[in-house]
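Hi R.,

Here's the chain you asked about this morning:
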Amino acid sequence: MSFKEIIDKVVADGAAYCDIRKEHWNKTSLTLKDGVPEMVAQGEEEGAMVRVFYGNGWGCVGTNDLDDIQETANRALTMAKKSARYKESETDLADIEINQDKIKIPMKEDFRDISAEEKLSFLKELEYNLSKNFVKSTDIRYRDSLVEKEIITSEGTHIQMEIPRLVAYLIVTGKSDTIQRASEGTGGTGGYEITEKTLDKTNVVLDRLETLLEASTPPSGKMPLIMDPHLAGVFSHEAFGHAAEGDLVASDNSCLKGKLGEKVASDIVTIKDDPTMEGYGSFPYDDEGTKTRNRVLVKEGTLNDFILDRENAWKLDLEPNGGARAEDFRVKPLVRMSNTIMEPGDMKFEELLEEIKGRGVYAKASSGGQVSPAQGTFQFNAQESYLIEDGEIVKPLRDVSFNGFTLDTLQNITGITDKLETGIGHCGKGQTAPVSDGAGHVLVSEVMVGGRE
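And the predicted structure, written out as tokens:
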């Protein structure tokens, strides 16, 4: 039976809705640790996820046996019926435009035409470029993937997509009185041509490590903070973006619940999540077959929208905007971000420095942290930082962290530079999703900085 015939049968058996998402993956993963290959994996896999909506219950079953889709659909229907018996709250799917579309994101240089040996040679070239006397260890990681997706729904949507992605990470470690690590990632939606960006980052990561090895411990207390574009992008994604995910809002696990249309940031702050722009987190349709669009979450300080799949759009009485993403065919889609950007402003970096009277910190790149979307709190660690005194950068710092309340910090943003820079990452939420984030340099007038003084 065809996928359409299987879907029609599920609906005839009483389901309100059914979709099938078929995927074929072509992947390569390489890791070079201190010049020695630790992982060389290349292969293909395919499978499908069947989702069935019955009453108020969902049944979602994945399989890697495409000859067994009828049985998979039967299991999903049975699961949905059992779920509906115990589901007390009402739910449904918000309406979307029905589309039939076929999209292939191009690669200037198809990474499938590059052998694993050639890719490994490229990593060895990177490793050679990172060979400095202050570097004690190197870790270079490369991943590429091409996914071919087909999404068919009982409403008539039929989407076919080919999405290529490539990412590389450079991680270097050195030792002075403490062990220090610096890292930098590059990636995007496209082909092997993206690797050219990685070569440009070797000097960045080397300069960062060398600075850290000579840096001092930081001050602590409330003070002005300048975030570089990459750290400001991570803040936009982690501290704010997760709170703007519709499933967290609908389940009362977001500090943004009930604040749509209210001021949540200073007037100069506009934050968008845009899967249609060029970036590592780009995609033309989400995994429910909804056409994506630019989601302006904060517009000139006012909360304007959330990231939404169809079910949570229904719960919040809003329009779906293409926010459903699944890691692969084994799992159901969740509400996820794509390319999360704090829009640039109109200032220059020197002007941000001039705003700082007394002592402040300039923090660059992220080395992790934690957030609570429900409580609206965050804590971030910067890879590289500098002490600012009376508008002048004085000396490098290390082990800088800062924390606070997300909405207070957004209100305390008093300057953003006019040049946008973006970075890449992998966002975890039970599943992993490729994402981008970015901003200009961002001045926060006051935030709690942690240090050892």
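The chain has two domains: 3-213, 221-450.

Let me know if you need anything else.
M.
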